[in-house]
Specification:
About 55% of the residues lie in helices and about 20% in strands. A hairpin with a 4-residue loop joins strand 5 and strand 6. Helix 5 packs across helix 11, helix 6 runs antiparallel to helix 10 and helix 8 runs antiparallel to helix 9. The longest helix is centred in the first third of the chain and has 47 residues. The mean pLDDT is about 85.
Length: about 550
């Protein structure tokens, strides 16, 4: 239930802090006193859009804070709070700044607006003249029926299965399309795989081949330089290695006489193998390198093929080989399409069976609840001065085969007068009739989510005796739930457990709204005002007192 509501800097409200009680809470006041602002603040707490122009002139932000109490933990918050008390007492604060920024806090933790909207369904239900579209909208009508039928968990599972069916159907369609293109695609993949495998790619091969081509292209100059270098280094009469060998031997002899020469000899002896190795490399190159025209052509062909792969699949060997692995995997999947198709077909069949079984349970629940609602609603409407009213819930087969909402849609049909044909509710019911139907629905079944109901002038468009009947029904609903009701009817206000008056005053050139819970003498005076306006006689006072004693506390 809503325990406390605080509003700061909202339109004509500077700062009010009001506690509400169990049972029937009635709010009254003259037109323009600020009752609608109270209602708007509750919608604001529920995450609805809010016009920043309603920020009180001269202020930077609006603050609305509400404290809700629950008899058992609110499970929607379980993943955010550890303490059980944090799940039973919920403090919600929302702030709106003049630059349009919003801040939302639940038990002092920051949340976003979308979560607040989801949470609001557990906090309260608001019904007013502008909310009557809920009754006339076909989707909302189905939601009302499902709420009465307790289908929430079943529908969550149906929605999940419906999504899984859609995903599986799409995957099957993709496989069937692949099957149609399978042979052509397979041929292309195999060609690409062979194209890459033929070149025996490995890390560094491109650079190695390009270097080899450079040698081929400059072979004459290279061989001339190699022969000259080999002659100077090893083959000539006065080769560097033979001269270096003499120098090394001389330093070996000198090393016996001086430590410094011994160190020099060690360095020379380390350099000698390097010169010999260099000579062997050059000699091997000169002996083994026989660049035939065929070999040069083969190299150019291979490099041309690699460069073609680079243009298609990537600049480096790594990128080309990565593409190679991907197409090998694709080929493997193509070859297993038949198995995949069979598995998916079996999965789809299982999902469809699960869907039909679940949809049948949901439909059965709906039809049972529809019968109860029709029966109970006729009784409730009769007691709301609509004795000849007829109400029926029509079931329409869904055109969507695996809809997340089940196998059917519904439409509320209504007739206000005897002998009239049942027609869609939105085409025949007046505003006053819709208000009473909404109240009757709340009495015909209870929501499973919240115990707080807020009615904004739900008695609009009804007469005096009917208004008294509305008051009786609100009182009846308040025996098991908290009810807040804004009304202009004294017959309704007389049933209040707690009666609040919203009024405004001017101070220092500014308008201020305030809300006060009324004592019994104050209630009598307020109901007298509602009965006769500003001209309150002793007789009216007495009538107001009798009305309260008869219907209220």
């Amino acid at each position: 239930m809503l325990r406390t509501l605080r509003i700061k800097n909202l339109a004509i409200i500077k700062d009010i802090n009001t506690d509400f009680g169990k049972g029937l809470n009635i709010l009254t006041g003259e037109t323009g006193a600020g009752k609608s602002i109270i209602l708007e603040s509750l919608k604001f707490i529920g995450g609805e859009r809010f016009d920043k122009t309603l920020i009180r002139s001269g202020e930077k932000k609006v603050i609305v804070e509400a404290i809700f109490e629950f008899s058992k933990p609110l499970l929607i918050l379980k993943e955010y709070f550890d303490e059980e008390e944090d799940l039973k007492e919920i403090i919600i604060r929302r702030e709106l700044y003049e630059d349009g920024r919003n801040k939302v806090f639940v038990n002092n933790a920051s949340f976003n607006l979308s979560f607040l909207k989801e949470l609001s369904t557990y906090l309260y239900n608001i019904y007013g003249q502008n909310d009557q579209k809920v009754l006339t909208d076909k989707k909302s009508q189905l939601e009302i029926l499902d709420s009465a039928a307790g289908n929430s968990e079943l529908l969550e599972n149906l929605k999940r299965i419906s999504s899984e069916i859609e995903r599986t159907q799409k995957e099957l369609k993709r496989i069937e399309e692949l099957e149609r293109e399978k042979e052509q695609r397979k041929e292309f993949l195999e060609f690409t795989i062979n194209e890459i495998e033929e070149l025996e790619l490995k890390e560094g091969i491109i650079e190695e081949l390009r270097e080899k081509r450079k040698v081929f292209q400059n072979s004459e100059q290279i061989f001339s330089t190699v022969r000259e270098t080999l002659n100077l280094l090893y083959d000539g009469d006065s080769s560097l290695i033979s001269i270096f060998s003499i120098i090394e031997n001389n330093f070996q002899n000198l090393s016996k006489y001086k430590k410094e020469w011994e160190d020099d000899y060690k360095k020379l002896s380390e350099f000698s193998p390097f010169l010999e190795d260099l000579a062997y490399k050059l000699r091997d190159f000169a002996e083994e390198s026989d660049f035939s025209p065929e070999e040069i052509e083969e190299l150019e062909t291979k490099l041309a093929k690699i460069e073609n792969l680079q243009r298609k699949y990537g600049e480096t060997e790594k990128e080309i080989l990565s593409h190679y692995e991907k197409i090998k995997e694709e080929l493997r999947k193509l070859e297993s399409l038949e198995i995949d198709k069979k598995e998916l077909s079996e999965k789809l069949k299982t999902l469809e069976n699960e869907y039909h079984n679940l949809a049948r349970r949901i439909s059965d629940n709906r039809k049972k609840s529809a019968n109860l609602i029709e029966k109970n609603l006729k009784k409730e409407l009769s007691e709301l001065s609509m004795k000849n009213a007829e109400f029926k819930i029509k079931f329409i087969k869904s055109e969507e085969k695996f809809s997340p909402l089940g196998n059917e849609r519904v439409e509320f049909l209504f007739s206000a007068n005897k002998g009239e044909e049942l027609r869609p509710l939105n085409k025949v019911a007046s505003g006053g009739e819709l208000s009473r139907i909404m109240l009757a629905l709340k009495l015909a079944f209870k929501d499973n989510l919240t115990d707080t109901y807020i009615f904004d002038e739900i008695d609009s468009g009804v007469g005096g005796k009917t208004a008294e009947n509305v008051g009786e029904k609100l009182k009846k609903l308040s025996l098991s739930s908290q009810v807040l009701c804004i009304t202009h009817f004294p017959q309704v206000a007389a049933f209040a457990d707690y009666h609040y008056k919203v009024e405004k005053e001017e101070r220092e050139g500014r308008t201020f709204a305030r809300i006060n819970v009324l004592s019994k003498p104050e209630r009598i005076k307020e109901i007298a005002r509602m009965m006769s306006g500003s001209n309150i006689s002793e007789a009216v006072i007495k009538s107001a007192e009798e009305l309260i004693n008869l219907n209220g506390r």
